[in-house]
Amino acid sequence: MASAVICLTCSAVFHLMFVVSRSAFTFLSRLDYAGITILIAGSFYPMIYYSFYCHPWLRSAYLVSISTMAALTFTVALMPIFSTPRFLVARTCIFLALGFFGFVPVTHLVWHFGLFDPHVTVMIGPLLLMGLLYTSGAIIYATKFPERFYPGRFDLWFSSHQLWHICVVAAALVHFANALQQYQWRWNTQCEA
Questions:
Q1: d(Cα 178, Cα 49) in Å, to the nearest integer?
Q2: Residues 137, 79: contact at Cβ < 8 Å?
Q3: Are 94 and 69 a contacting pair, CB within 8 Å?
Q4: Which residue ranges make up each domain of the chain?
Q5: Is 112 annotated as a binding-site member?
Q6: Can you tell me the distance from the alpha carbon of 49 to that of 43, in angstroms, rounded to the nearest whole number?
Q7: Annotation-wise, does 55 bind a ligand?
Q8: Which of 2, 37, 47, 148 gives a 20 to 30 Å CA spacing to 182?
Q9: Keyword Mitochondrion: yes or no (predicted)?
């Protein structure tokens, strides 16, 4: 949840202060993208930590992998060219690619434990919902739907940017609830000898 707080704080600061100057916009947009990267990476940690708790080597390998990919994405997000409008779709695709890495540990869990094992069932539904919300929000944002089809109608309410933020907050709430479920499940489940 800390990653969601960081992301939404960065976003709030950006939206509040970006109008101050061009240099403020440039700096704060990078801060906003860094926050998005932190949110995506942070979304992985509870699932990986609790699901692979009894397999410390795998847990560490996946946590190091996502941390490394997030560090690379974070570095790219700080590049000045990354915040330009012409890189909107590329930016969105980079963030989606980082998020889609989640299929790797989830597939591994399903392969290792089976689809109906508690390791998988405790997190698969909420994880898919979280991914759907994040992905839908990103696609809405990148395609500028609905305002691109109805210019002027969504200038104040329900623009793609607002819909994207709604999806992000909803996904973060799903993530938080699921992290609590995973924690409770892990607390009550022993590792096999």
A1: 13
A2: no
A3: no
A4: 2-187
A5: no
A6: 11
A7: no
A8: 37
A9: no
